[in-house]
Amino acid sequence: MINSYGSSKGVSRKGGTFARRNLIIALPLIPLIAYLAFFFFWPMVMVVTDSLKNNDHHWSFINFTTITHKPYSTAFKNSILLGALSALFASIPGAIFAYIIEVRGSEKLKGFVTSLSGVLANTGGVPLAFMFIATFGAQGSAIKILKALGIDLYSGGFTLFSFTGIVFVYLYFQIPLMVIIFSPALHSIRNEWRDAAKNLGATPRKFWRTIGVPLLFPSFTASFLLLFASGFAAYATARAMTVGNIALVPLVIGTLVDGNVQVDQANVGKSLAVGMVIVSALAMIPYLIIQRRARRWQQ
Amino acid sequence: MKKSLSIALPSTLAIAALFIFLPFGSSAEFSFRSYSPEGKLMHSFAPYQWILQQPEFMSHLLLSFKLSLIAVAFTAILVVPSVAWLHLKAQSFRSIIEVVTILPLVIPVVALSIGVQAAFPDWLQSTEYELPLMYVILSLPFTFRILDNGLQAIPLKTISEASRGLGANWPKTIIFVIAPVMRSAVAGAFFLTFALSLGEFTLTSLLHWDTFPTWVTSVSQQNIIGAIALSVFSLTVAFVVLLLVGLFSSQTKKRTEVAE
């Protein structure tokens, strides 16, 4: 950050060729920027403009009025709740786990945990859903073992193919994700600070209340927001696990794209997509800002 | 306090191991299940034999491999030189490129898929090669960061100036100086692109293409044990590939620490 600022200032000081120099420097970056423009920005612009058009291709807010009603409003409520609950149930155990590994684990163990968390956080999707069906489905191994021990979860109304079931499955990639993004923050709490506080007479509790928690709170919030966005937008796992019985925004968009459902408005799917982008951005932008600021003292 | 924590570590690790291996072990058990003609449950290699008998298995697997390799190739010719250039000459553009490349992480893949459907011309949407082009975008937030972090600690500018000062021309500098120092970061970026492309489901299925992951889902509708066996297979592959990524990135870290 500071470097780039400094060097651009250095260039401008050399005289009036600032703009020309910058243009020449930027030239080799044009392929990447053009690629992003065509394969990323253009599709996103199309989503936004199409979402603002009615069936006659005239500008209109009708799609957005439509999605504030059922069943779309329910889908948004469910998806937001799914993101929030899976983030909540993953962030706390994830943070505690990361803390114990950070404080007690050897360097080797820390490295192993990071690699393994990376693997687990990325093994979302379809295989994850089938893995849980094999374990906690009605015929699943864990359910069978529990049954043999006299505990019949399914008689208690438990089912994997429900909202609670999806929250449960999401934890499998959300907790490792929490470990990955929260560990750097824990790592930056220096032992010297702890020792200094102790020398000044602070109890461990006081250290946490006045130093540890205030320091970690921004990173914890940022991690929570990222987890929320990841749970809110996840598609593959939910798609493989549900049979259209739970309304989630990504799944509703999926059925609209497949053309399985007749809708009055052709562009409702696009306004749902814009809705998703807005919710996602509301979580991701603060996440990115907090992470960027936190990185300054985490080095 | 200390004592309770020393019990905390082993018990935490035990819980973590259970958390990871219960679903994995259970699926492995499930994937060997088959039923005798009398309907009795037994274990055999039958589900895996069934997989190998499916002609779609190999064709989809090969297709996924091919598309992932294309995505890696695009990352190689598009992303790697750009990041190297940012570090060599265009430091003033680094922060803006950093922001732009993170955006695909902010936008849900579902929303992007809708956009692709609305925006791309028909000739592009009628070929499966639109997929690797999009996989490059989806992996960009990660590949940019891997390359950027890898290069951050290497004084690329200084060493390339040194090489030029010692009389090497640009092609020589690129081949003998820049390429070798970037090697592990580039390998990490390639592995990540490959793994992400291989497992990509959302965009592929919303654009109505059939690759390995989407085929597994359609298998589940007729043969759930077969689908679970396929999941165990693909997760094992994913584990190996991603652990390699982890290995490479930790190597990068070590190298950069030495460089510092």
Main β-sheet of chain B: number of strands, strand sense, barrel status? 2 strands, antiparallel
Distance between the termini of chain A: 13 Å
Q: Provide the helix percentage of chain B.
A: over 70%
Which word captures the global form of chain B? globular
Taken as a percent bin, the fraction of beta residues of chain B is: under 5%
Low-pLDDT runs of 5+ residues of chain B are 255-260
Rg estimate of chain A, integer Å: 24 Å
Helix content of chain A: over 70%
What is the CATH homology-level superfamily of chain B? MetI-like
Helix count of chain B? 12
Number of domains of chain B: 1
User: Main sheet of chain A, how many strands, which sense, barrel?
Assistant: none
Task: State the low-pLDDT regions of chain A, or none.
Answer: 1-15
**CA(first)-CA(last) distance of chain B:** 37 Å
Could you tell me the number of beta strands of chain B? 2
Question: How would you sum up this structure, described in words?
Answer:
The complex is a heterodimer of chains A (299) and B (260). Chain A has 299 residues and is mainly alpha-helical. Chain A folds into 2 domains: 1-51, no CATH class; 71-298, MetI-like fold, CATH 1.10.3720.10. In chain A, 76% of the residues lie in helices and 0% in strands. Chain A is built from 14 helices and no strands. In chain A, helix 5 (72-104) crosses helix 9. The two termini of chain A are 13 Å apart. Residues 255-260 of chain B have low confidence and may be disordered. Chain B has one domain: MetI-like (MetI-like fold), CATH 1.10.3720. In chain B, strand 1 and strand 2 (41-43) form a beta hairpin. Chain B is globular and about 80 Å long. Chain B has helices at residues 2-31, 46-53, 55-88, 94-106, 109-119, 122-125, 130-152, 156-165, 170-199, 202-206, 212-220, 224-259, and strands at 33-35, 41-43. Helices cover 82% and strands 2% of the residues of chain B. Chain B is mainly alpha-helical.
